[in-house]
Design brief:
By secondary structure, this protein is of the alpha/beta class. Helices cover 39% and strands 19% of the residues. The chain has a seven-stranded mixed β-sheet with strand order 7-6-14-15-16-13-17. The protein has a five-stranded parallel β-sheet with strand order 11-2-1-12-18. It has a two-stranded antiparallel sheet with strand order 3-4. The longest helix has 18 residues.
Length: 444
């Protein structure tokens, strides 16, 4: 059976790898000159530093399992620092523990953090006894959190974390698609905090177990290894213009939804229309290397989040050389600064010099860093993060039903479908390949 995969980001590479492993004759087509999509590792200050994602969740199996299959499992490392901070109300403040995706489970710890005002703490304390009913259907993360815990917790804790991950606002994010852990808790109890506390108390997970993993030479090594396994079955600089041109029994399209729309229009106009409704956010990542002697701020943690309500250009700063033991050196400090979210393209609109100036001004205001960096790298990721609006999973189900009716030989998946993290993309790619192979060779 012949399987064609369109797109060689991590989803497409995983799909191609899985199909080949299953015995299919596979070709993976990639329009760009390199594979890997948003997983890219290049050199900064003489060492490999990721330009996109620099870690993946350790407590879901899909990325860990793939690394083990590829012989990379023994190389996985976890962060050297666990503490994280939020810039709120004029200072960097420790993220209160325990919390679940920013939802505080200890209100005394919330009060001690200073992230929200005393009025904000008092409002949050009402949550366990607040009237309400369990979640039915889908709604935005913001609607759920604001109703249960108030605006301050929503704006200064949950939005910087969940909104930051998705480059969005929690008021526009589907709770079921973006944070199923919160959706599950909210659907079981009228009190989000009480249920999250119960789930935490009953969990058998080791609290000391790693939360994130990465590879010391960057996550680009993962996609490079997949590309190497595919060998000449991977065709770079090979854009697919018409699906009908592909010599394949089964086709798996893994490119972004807006690009997939054009390919699918001739075979399923309804699917193309649905894909066109998925929005994307643009982000930029500025990596900076400093002489260690010029950085006076203590960096005993992984970095900090910056709430949108603070009005800064940046949304987060990762203290990469503190977060990871393999980044930086006794003489060099490395920071990775994020900017941009859906509806806020200020950073993307700036030229390089103006962008670096804005980032440096924000670093000065938030952590007192005024030194000149020795090296700067700018990574612009335009229309890179799909937006999961309320009802997103119903939309994905509609896409799958429409495609199954119009073109059963075709699978379409990717970060826009059921998860944008590295493990979710790997899982979706491998699932699509397994489904294609299981269906067998059929005439198109």
């Amino acid at each position: 059976m012949k399987v064609a995969v369109v797109g060689a980001g991590v989803t497409g590479l995983a799909a191609g790898y899985e199909a080949a492993k299953s015995g299919a004759e596979v070709v993976v087509y990639e329009a760009a000159e390199r594979a890997g999509g948003r997983l890219l590792t290049t050199e900064l200050a003489g060492q490999p530093v990721d330009e996109g994602a620099d870690a993946f969740l350790a407590r879901v199996p899909w990325a860990v399992e793939l690394c083990q299959e590829l012989g990379l499992g023994a190389d996985l490392v976890s962060p050297a620092q666990r503490a994280a901070f939020v810039y709120s109300r004029g200072a960097l403040r420790t993220l209160p523990q325990p919390n679940v995706l920013g939802v505080p489970l200890d209100f005394d710890a919330l009060a001690a953090s200073g992230i929200v005002s005393s009025d904000g703490v008092d409002r949050a304390r009402q949550e366990p006894d607040l009237a309400g009913s369990p979640l039915v259907g889908d709604k935005s993360v913001g609607e759920l959190v604001r109703r249960r815990l108030g605006d301050e917790v929503a704006d200064r804790l949950v939005d910087p974390l969940i909104g930051g991950i998705n480059a969005s606002s929690i008021d526009q994010l589907s709770v079921r698609a973006a944070v199923p852990q919160l959706a599950e808790a909210a659907s079981r109890s009228s009190s989000l905090v009480r249920e999250l506390r119960r789930l935490a108390a009953s969990s058998t997970a080791d609290p000391a177990a790693p939360v994130f993993y990465t590879l010391p030479d960057g996550l680009g090594r993962l996609t490079n290894e997949l590309a190497d396994r595919l060998g000449d079955r991977l065709r770079l600089s090979s854009p697919v213009v018409e699906l009908g041109d592909l010599d394949a029994d089964r086709v798996i399209v893994t490119i972004p939804a807006n690009a997939a729309r054009a390919l699918l229009s001739p075979v399923s106009a309804r699917t193309a229309e649905l894909l066109d409704s998925i929005d994307y956010a643009s982000v930029v990542l500025v990596s900076l290397a400093y002489d260690a002697i010029d950085v006076n701020h203590p960096m005993a943690g992984s970095g900090y989040l910056v709430p949108a309500v603070e009005g800064f250009t940046i949304t987060a700063c990762s203290w990469a050389s503190s977060k990871w033991a393999h980044v930086g050196s006794p003489d060099t400090v490395v920071l990775r600064v994020s900017a941009g979210r859906y509806g806020d393209d200020r950073a993307l609109a700036l030229d390089d010099d103006a962008l670096v100036g804005a980032v440096r001004a924000d670093l000065g205001a938030t952590m007192g860093l005024s030194a000149e960096p020795q090296e700067v790298r700018i990574s612009r990721w335009e229309r890179s993060l799909p937006q999961f609006r309320p009802g997103h999973l119903d939309l994905v189900a509609d896409i799958e039903r429409s495609l199954a009716h119009d073109a059963p030989w075709l699978q379409v998946t990717g970060a826009w479908a059921r998860g944008l993290g590295v493990p979710a993309c790997i899982h979706q790619g491998r699932q699509a390949a397994q489904a294609s192979v299981a269906q067998g060779a059929v005439a198109r």
